[in-house]
Amino acid sequence: MKNVRAAPVKSSKKKSATGITGFDYITNGGLPAGRTTLVVGGPGSGKTIFAAQFLLHGVTKCDEPGIFVAFEEAPERIASNFEAFGWKMESLPSSKLFFMDAQPTAVLIQAGDFDIGGMLAALGAQARRMGATRIVFDALDIMMALLPDAAAKRREIYRLNAWLLENNLTGIVTARAGGHEASMLGDGTYGFMQFMVDCAVILNHRVTLGISQRNLRVQKYRGSAFDENEAPFVIGEGGIDVAVARTRDRVDANVSSERVSSGVKRLDTMLGGGYYRGSSVRIAGFPGTAKTTLSGAFAEAACLRGERTVFISCDSDGAEVVRNLTSVAIQLGRFVKSGLLLIVSARTVMGSAEAMFSRIKSAATLHNARCLVVDPVSAMSKAGNELTAHNVVERLIDWSKAQGITLVCTSLVDTSEGQMGAGTPLHISTLADTWIQLNYLVQAGERNRGMSIIKSRGTAHSNQVRELILNDNGITLADIYTARGEVLMGTLRSEKESTEGIEREHARVQTKLERVRLDAEQAELEVRLKSVQTELIAKQLEKELLARTTASRKVGVSRRSAQTRELRGADTVKPGRKPQ
Amino acid sequence: MSRPAHFKFRLYTADDSQNSAQALANLKALCATYLPERHDIEVINVFSDPQRALTDKIRMTPTLLKLAPLPMQRVVGTLSQTSKVLLALGLDPPP
Predict the structure, then answer these.
(1) What is the Cα A144 distance to its own chain's centre?
(2) How many Å separate Cα A133 from the centre of its chain?
(3) Closest CA to B25 of A108, A112, A151
(4) A408, A283 in Cβ contact below 8 A?
(5) Among all residues of chain A, which has the CA nearest to that of B55?
(6) Which of A114, A118, A121 sits opposite B77 (nearest CB)?
């Protein structure tokens, strides 16, 4: 038997996909092909489902026939149990999926030691006949319990492992173990088994404050890198769905600079055009601060653009949401009717955050959604889910981002918390791309809603608080009155505004009067200026006339004196002067 | 007492594994002691005839099948606990 572990290593990179969402990711492709994997877990931890999903994936997707050896339940029962997942095992031909009923019968009489050689011989024949590459031994512990001592158990496990390797089958052996992981390791038989197999997966099922929490951990995986952390999983509509922790390479997949409307015009302008497509938005606020209304506006805007949208309502029924939003002129009913909008009522009493996430994912995927609203996402952190909710919301954000889905989640802020609400149980504020905070301002017997954008990654955004006004016509955002350290909203704001209006009118009239007066003065001066100018021109003319008269008189005089001289015969040259 | 019944046994073995060899030896000794001259033993090696193991629903080896007299009876193991085997086969243990 010593040669078992030294069995020739076949192409070590080869993996056998399980088709279990997330698990293949954690293990970089699935279970080790041609090797044995041990799946241990407590009762009801999902071992059989895990194994069956692996087989079924092989048969239906990879063209790898498989054998299911059932020690615990009758094959017919197993197959009918899995119909709930939509797995039609019974309709598969037995040449593709073969069930072997290996339940120890009640009438079986046991006298002394035995081995499972007979079964393996039969299985070997069957495997060769159908060309099977996958095999599951479900609840091996049932068989092991019949063996008289630990040595015999070890021997049979060795036999099984050797047989699997020899036949080059990718095997899953499931075994029940105590609910707690520590006790599994302490258990002689399975502890030993964990050393022998090439891959070991531990399934846990805990109940925290009445909420069921499942997780899975790959304990070992020879020759391959794997995610060593516990990964939460749910048993959803299509089988096991393993949550992949913070993804390494998917998040940056769909970065878009396209803007989508928030459904409120003024908010769009505050955000510089709206939310980014594929981004995540957190609308946080106290109860009744219009979180649902804002998210409803977003949903309506999305539907008006013709985009398929899913609205997850954790607080009320779909019909209630539609009716309530009608009061603020958000008409969602027509889109529900046309099938564009899907409202899912998901009261969180139904289970863990993980299960909720799984439901959201499947709803959004089935609906082929481009926009998603979760109202409120904080409902996920209800009793029993505090520890996991944060991680789930993180993954919700990552997931929707990877899908290019624009996500709007509202988040209820407990009234006992600070005004900023930064200390919400879900610290998703750091993860969301845009964080809109809704507040109350109680003043002069009024409670008014205020809205501010705390952050919005990659967009210029207004730093101002706006008053959020809801009425029959819809949502409007008004500037609040701030001056001299005063912040006024509601009636006070409108009073202040009207006072200011009168003051402004007064000032305007004053200015007008002043202007008229100045105009008059100017006109007067202009008139005066004109008459003076006219006078000036008259004077100039007078002066000219004078000059001209004087000149002509001078000419007349000299002409006359010359005539006189001629007449008198006077000297042509003046006496005393040299003649010319 | 009427003529004692004739016993027909079929023993499924896995090659010549220790358990199987032991079972065969125990069966033979038991028959020699309690059923002299009134038994048949058929031995089927599941490794040489796995199809038989499949159709006969043999899971563990060795498995002893008592075909006659009816009712059929199935005993698994090395058959080392003689009194238990005798009881199962409807034979009276020795006084």
Answers:
(1) 48
(2) 40
(3) A112
(4) yes
(5) A122
(6) A114
How far is A102 from chain B, CA to nearest CA, in Å? 6
Report the residue of chain A nearest B79, measured CA to CA: A111
Who's near B49: CB < 8 A, 6+ residues apart? none
Partner B contacted by A95 (CB < 8 A): no
Q: Chain B interface residues facing chain A, Cβ-Cβ under 8 Å?
A: 12, 14-15, 17, 19-20, 22-23, 26, 46-47, 50-51, 53-54, 57-63, 73-81, 84-85, 88
Structure tokens at A536: 């000036």
pLDDT tens, per residue, chain A with 580 residues: 334 443 333 334 588 888 887 888 888 888 888 888 888 888 778 888 888 889 888 888 888 889 998 888 888 888 888 888 888 877 888 788 888 888 877 667 777 788 888 888 888 888 888 888 899 998 888 888 787 777 888 888 888 888 888 888 888 988 887 544 444 444 555 667 777 888 888 888 877 666 677 888 888 888 877 777 778 787 877 788 777 755 545 555 557 788 888 888 888 888 888 888 888 888 888 887 888 888 899 999 999 999 999 998 888 888 888 888 888 888 888 998 998 898 888 765 566 777 788 788 888 888 888 899 988 887 777 656 666 777 788 788 888 888 888 999 888 876 554 444 444 445 556 677 888 888 887 777 777 888 888 888 777 777 778 888 888 888 888 877 766 666 777 777 778 778 888 889 999 999 999 999 999 999 999 999 999 999 999 999 999 999 999 999 888 888 888 888 888 876 666 666 555 5
Q: Which DSSP letter does residue A39 get?
A: E
CA of B86 to nearest chain A CA: how many angstroms apart?
10
Distances (CA, A) of B80 to A69, A147, A349, B21: 28, 14, 58, 11
> What letter would DSSP give residue A116?
S
Q: What is the CATH number of domain B7-88?
A: 3.40.30.10
Task: Name the residue among A492, A488, A495 with its Cα closest to residue A465.
Answer: A488
Residue ranges covered by each domain of chain B: 7-88
Facing B79 at nearest CB: one of A105, A112, A121: A112
Distance, in Å, from the CA atom of B82 to the CA atom of A452, rounded to the nearest integer, reads 87
Q: Which fold has domain A251-493?
A: Rossmann fold (3.40.50)
Q: How many CA atoms lie within 13 A of B37 on its CB side?
A: 2
- Cβ of A106 under 8 Å from any chain B Cβ? no
CB contact under 8 Å between B20 and A109, yes or no, is: no
* Count of H-run helices and E-run strands, chain B: 3, 4
Q: What is the three-class DSSP state of A200? A: strand
* Amino acid found at A239: G
Beta carbons of B61 and A115 less than 8 angstroms apart: yes
Nearest to A308 by CA among A371, A362, A263: A371
Which CATH number, 3.40.50.300, 3.40.50.970, 3.40.50.1400, 2.120.10.30, labels domain A13-242? 3.40.50.300
Q: Are B43 and B28 in contact (CB under 8 A)?
A: no
Q: For residues A286 and A288, give the distance between their C-alpha atoms in angstroms, rounded to a whole number.
A: 6
Rounded to 10 deg, the angle between the A150-166 and A117-130 helix axes is 20
Pull the structure tokens for residue A455. Answer: 């952050």
Domain range summary for chain A, segments of one domain joined by +: 13-242, 251-493
Q: What ipTM, to 2 d.p.?
A: 0.83
**Helix, strand or coil for residue A219?**
strand
